[in-house]
Hints:
This protein has one domain. The chain contains four helices and 15 strands. By secondary structure, the chain is of the alpha+beta class.
Amino acid sequence: MLQYEYARTGLQLGLQLEREVVVNPYKFGMIGSTDSHTGLATAEEENFFGKHSGTEPSPVRYKHPMAATSNGRYESWDMASSGYAAVWATENTRQAIFDAMLRRETYATTGPRMIVRFFGGWGFTAADAANRLPANIGYKRGVPMGADLPPAPPGADVPTFLVMGLKDPLSGNLDRIQIVKGWLDGEGERREKVYDVVWSGDREIGSDGKLPPVGNTVDVANASWTNTIGAPELITVWRDPDFDPGVPAVYYARVIEIPTPRWTAYEAARFGITLPDGVPMTTQERAYTSPIWYTP
């Protein structure tokens, strides 16, 4: 992958360009798509039909390259099964859905149908995370994913974010929620940091600043797992501990599941085959929201 092939880099480049040309051309929202050429809605691990007709399920699919170019050979087992676009529309109509996309009130998942909420504001408190209707508070006291933070009211000095994830009932429990922040330093260089803001279990962030893995219940041979780890839902209010009011920043949320079988594990179990060493057999599905921007 090249350095500019990631949305995270693009969001940070937008902050840099805004300093130069006054307008941020990379204020985009997030959606997920399949990148498949089969005409099939097969974005789940257990029903993945490949990227094109040459990589449909079979006992020998893994031997057939997805593509061979001057940059190298891309194996079939290296394909990713994803994704879906989620839209927070006011009603299930074409106009309302397109209006929501224009507001960038959207998020992406790699396959599971997780429910994700992400709001930014200046006055969310820890008590707001105990409310069973967090969106009511989010819209009333903040802005949703895809929006710009309003100017800070008198007495407010740090932005607060209300974030919630609810599992897909047919998929894995949730491991953690992260907030990804991008900003510019004093020299205008791009900077980024990933914060673990809420997680399942009684884990604690270590001295290295990292949260220990949630564990793994995947039975690869049978392409199954148990939801005996993780949490069905996670919700919290997070304050940016490194906020500088003079620095432009962009934030988005990432919700990560516990490990579950990858499509390669389903393939091996169904056809009774053994895949080569090095083929990944598990994955951690995720969702990622449209950003919220702060401009001084």
